[in-house]
Amino acid sequence: MPVLPDPSPWVFPEPAEWDPEDDLVAMGGDLAPSTLIWAYLQGLFPMPVGSPRDPIGWFSPVRRGVLPLGGMVVSKSLRRSARDFEVRVDADFEQVIDACGDRRREGGWITRDVRSAYLELHRLGWAHSVETWRDGRLAGGLYGVAIGGLFAGESMFHHERDASKVALMGLVDLLRDEHADRRTLDVQWQTPHLATLGVVEISRAAYLERLRVAASAPLPTAFG
């Protein structure tokens, strides 16, 4: 089971204080485990803003991207690809976050501090990776934070075609248990690519209500 860290010394603004037209809610604080967990429970996630020396930004998208557990779009070709991979959980979290943070990737945002913070969350049992392997090699995967019935996806990567999509399929399968109706798979923002997989947008208010329900659900067995 995840290890609960000490309480955070930081206080985030209440939702009523958030700008209804701005995804960025707050700046500052730190990336300590308690700060991160408290932020996720309030519907926030961190992302660097500007240079690594600038304060961390805390986001809650006005239009949130979520993947309904019964709504992932899986093509016939993707189902065929899935047969070629083995899906594993937490087999090599560090290799996954390093692949996601590869500075050669366009739009890379995983700084050294972010990497260290999520490695510590993983050590404490809060952050997890879902991976695809072939012939003993990591082919793709994703990582995120699991709190009760919430899985907050952070990033994904692939070295082989469809490998990250198959990892997402694996994650959905892990979440579709007897508590699936109380679970939320958060992907932060809908992108054109994620939309093809079934990701939809919901309002910030709707997300916060889903989060309230998800927080009271038990952790999926794979992450417990």
Strand order of the largest sheet: 5-6-7-8-9-4-10
Strand coverage percent: 25-35%
Shape: globular
Q: Tell me about the biggest sheet?
A: 7 strands, mixed
The mean pLDDT is 95
Model description:
Belongs to the L/F-transferase family. One of its GO terms (molecular function) is leucyl-tRNA--protein transferase activity. This protein has 2 domains: 15-61, 2-Layer Sandwich (Alpha-Beta Plaits); 65-223, 3-Layer(aba) Sandwich (Aminopeptidase), CATH 3.40.630. Helices cover 29% and strands 25% of the residues. The chain contains 7 helices and 10 strands. A hairpin with a 7-residue loop joins β2 and β3 (56-59). α3 (93-100) packs antiparallel against α4.
Briefly, what is this?
This protein is α+β, with helices and mostly antiparallel strands.
